[in-house]
Amino acid sequence: MNIFKRVINKIKRTLRKNTKAYNKESFEKELLKYDVISFDIFDTLITRKIFNPDDIFNFVENKLVGIKLKEPLIDMRKKSEAEANREKNHDVNIDEIYFSMMDLYGYTEDEINGIKGLEVSLEKEFIYPRKVMLEILSMLVKKGKKVILTSDMYLNKNIVVEL
C-alpha cells in the first residue's frame, strides 16, 4: 500500500474513533503529527461567496456588454470545456476552454478575451479567504512543516497564485 493510502486510512480511522467535531486547536494538534500536509486551495483555504459554482457563469452573462451570445453562456462554457477535455485528453485550463469556445462558436479572439476576462474578474470578486484555515496553514509553515497546495481548478497558476 502506498504512503498516501496509508495516511488516508489512518485519518479515516482517527475520524471514526473521534466522532466529535474538531475545533481549531485539536485540528492543529492532529496536523502537527505529520511532516507533510496537503491542502486543496479551493473550498479549503479560499472559497466563493456563491452557493453554486456554476452561478459564476450567470453573473458573467448578466454583465456582458457588446458581445452577443449564441446560447446561454453556461451551456456554451460547459460544452466548450467538455470538448477541450475530450480533445486534449486531460483536465483543461481556462485558456484551453475559451480557445475551444472560439472554435466551436466562431467568436473572435477579442470577444473570447472579453468573456474570459470578465469570468476571471468575477472569480476574483467572489473569492474570500477562509481565515481559520489560513491561520492553520501559517502555523504549519512556521513550525517547519512541508505544506503542499493543490487544486484541480481550471484557472491558470498565475490566477490561482494571485487569488
Concise summary:
The protein has 163 residues and is mostly helical. It contains 8 helices and 4 strands. The protein is elongated and about 55 Å long.
Account of the protein in words:
The longest helix has 18 residues, at 109-126. It contains eight helices and four strands; from the N terminus they run H-H-E-E-H-H-H-H-E-H-E-H. The protein is mostly helical. It has helices at 3-17, 24-31, 55-63, 73-88, 94-105, 109-126, 131-142, 157-162, and strands spanning 36-40, 46-48, 127-129, 146-150. The mean pLDDT is 89.
CA-CA gap between termini:
36 Å
- The main sheet orders its strands as 1-4
Structural class: mainly alpha
How is the biggest beta sheet arranged?
Answer: 2 strands, parallel
Name the average pLDDT.
89
Q: Please report which band the strand proportion falls in: under 5%, 5-15%, 15-25%, 25-35%, 35-45% or over 45%.
A: 5-15%
- Return Rg in Å: 20 Å
Query: Low-confidence parts lasting 5 or more residues at pLDDT below 50?
Result: none
Strand tally, please?
Answer: 4
Helical content stands at 55-70%
